[in-house]
Amino acid sequence: MGVSMVSVKKVAVVVSLGVLLFAGCGGVKPPIPPIPPTPTPTPTPTVPPGIVSPDKLLHRDGRQLMQPDGFAFDFRGAKDCCNSEDGEPNPKWPLGSDERNAWLKEKGNINDLSRRPGPWRAVPGGEEEFQSIGGGYAEFEGRADLSKWNDAFWNYNDALTYHDAQRDQRVEVGVIDGWGLKGNCHAGDIPTYHPWASANNIQGESHCGATHVDAVQEAWIRKVVRTFGRHGNVIWETCNECSLVPGFSTNWEDEMVAIIRDEEARGGYQNHVVVSNAQRFVASADANAFHTGGGSVQPTDDGKITMVNEYNPEPPMKGNIVAATYCTARNQGVYYWAWRHGMTLTEWLKALGAIADGCLGQTCPHPDFERGHVVAGNPDHLEELGVAFQNVRAAHPDWWAGSCLAGGGTPPGDDPTHAAERWAFFEVVVEALAEDMQRQGICAWAHRRVEIHSLRPDKFWGELHPITTNNGCQNSNPYKNTWDVPR
Q1: Contact predicate 289/279, CB 8 Å
Q2: Dist. CA 298–CA 68, nearest whole Å
């Protein structure tokens, strides 16, 4: 719209009067400050068509993730679920954002991220962060249409994955997220969360099973592969927690892998690494990923890549414990994802900082523990174990080579004859903890069980487990969210 001459004249009159009034008061007109130039924004890279970032494609070589250049991938992975505080970018779980991923790169040099496209719906109580975009399916009158894709959702993922590659970050993409499938797609206490629940789609169909891949599930798998598979900086996770879905069959995941491979071939994509969270039973997977109480695991005996991808101890682990366990796993050849799970920002930054340092200068807090890890429990008793370790190490520094123990063994370069002496010393501590636990006999000491189990699994299951279970402590079992409970 043009500006009238009348308007221009009115402005001129007002300006002239302002200058005369200022001069009449004896003032001196101040200089007009220069207008600072508008900074040139950093351009967001556009996503080119076709196959992108092929130089970022990883492949499996035995137990290792390897880069195309023949070097092992220096894995530093973080799954940034599911909380945040003032002073940090929004994680926007479960997809992430450019701001958050760049922050993770800055704070932890994180080069492997996690993305769970679902399916899910952006409903109250669900993935509310993405209500402006929506989930994978188009919505019609408050329900998902399983026959139509939501382009805004897939475009967001496509662009974000490409931007991650520019930061030299890989992404583990969950092809199907089993968390929402549990309980017949009820997703905890959010009944409107899952589009495959019959009440939540306009087709009125249920696709919540995990026995055989049905047509709707196959269409979803192929859409995920078409969107993400052209990116070289992607690895697949078949399904997080799907082995907890009633009726789960490992054949279901093998069928998924076959569909993934077929869709990769159709798109002209190279094969991406496939991770299974069903824990070593999916024959066609390249890697086995475990949920634990927080500790690491031993490499699996099938020669595949071994990962720890999630843990949910209560209270959440401290940053130094996460860092120490990450470093211990790294020394063992296990890929340990740093999982936020309720950690404060202060503790999360401690963990990220240690990962960024590449474990340089890191020491295990309790290196003689079977798995190099203790779940955070009663701090007084953790301190007792720490003091015990410090005392024996101060008395006999020649017994250690400075590296973390792997599987309760002796550090490289140590005299194996001293291993028995170290274990004998810690046996005294174990007996004292066990005696105190038996004397207390209450659920408040549930986490102590994990401390003792780390040292003596035979004693834990043989003598101490009945104490807590017989006192109504079953619900406080710190292993309640894990599947690899040693017995």
Answers
A1: yes
A2: 27
Closest CA to 477 of 460, 458, 459, 455: 460
Q: Sort strands 234-240 and 274-276 into parallel, antiparallel or unpaired.
A: parallel
For every residue of 404-438, which 3-state class applies, written as one string? Answer: CCCCCCCCCCCCCHHHHHHHHHHHHHHHHHHHHHH
Closest CA to 277 of 484, 66, 64: 484
Length of the chain: 487
The strand pairing partners of 72, in sequence order, are: 66
Q: Tell me how far the alpha carbon of residue 253 is from its chain's centroid.
A: 21
* Full-model pTM: 0.70
Strands 112-115 and 170-177: parallel
Query: Which is it for the CA torsion 192, 196, 198, 201, positive or negative?
Result: positive
DSSP 8-state class, residue 51: S
Cα distance between residue 475 and residue 469, in whole Å: 9
Structure tokens belonging to residue 9: 């004249």
378 and 447 Cβ atoms separated by less than 8 Å: yes
Distance between CA 216 and CA 208 in Å, rounded? 10
Looking only at the bridges linking them, the beta strands covering 287-292 and 274-276 are parallel
What's the rounded Cα separation, in Å, for the pair 257 and 263?
A: 10
Nearest CA to 295 out of 375, 353, 403 is that of 375
Quote the tokens at residue 77: 């992975």
Distances 308 to 42, 115, 289, 481 between C-alpha atoms, Å: 36, 16, 5, 13
Rounded-to-integer distance, Cα 160 and Cα 287, Å? 25
Per-residue model confidence as pLDDT tens for the chain (487 residues): 443 443 333 334 333 434 333 343 344 445 555 555 656 656 667 889 999 999 999 999 999 999 998 889 999 999 988 888 998 999 999 999 999 999 999 999 999 999 999 999 999 888 999 999 999 999 999 999 999 999 999 999 999 999 999 999 999 999 999 999 988 898 878 899 999 999 999 999 999 999 999 999 999 999 999 999 999 999 999 999 998 898 999 999 999 999 999 999 999 999 999 999 998 889 999 999 999 888 888 899 999 999 999 988 878 888 888 887 888 788 788 999 999 988 999 999 999 988 887 775 444 433 333 222 333 333 334 434 444 454 555 555 555 443 433 333 333 334 455 555 655 555 565 565 555 555 544 344 444 444 444 444 444 444 444 444 444 444 433 333 222 222 2
Q: In terms of DSSP H, where are the helices of 58-202?
A: 98-108, 151-166, 182-185
H or E stretch including 291?
strand 287-292
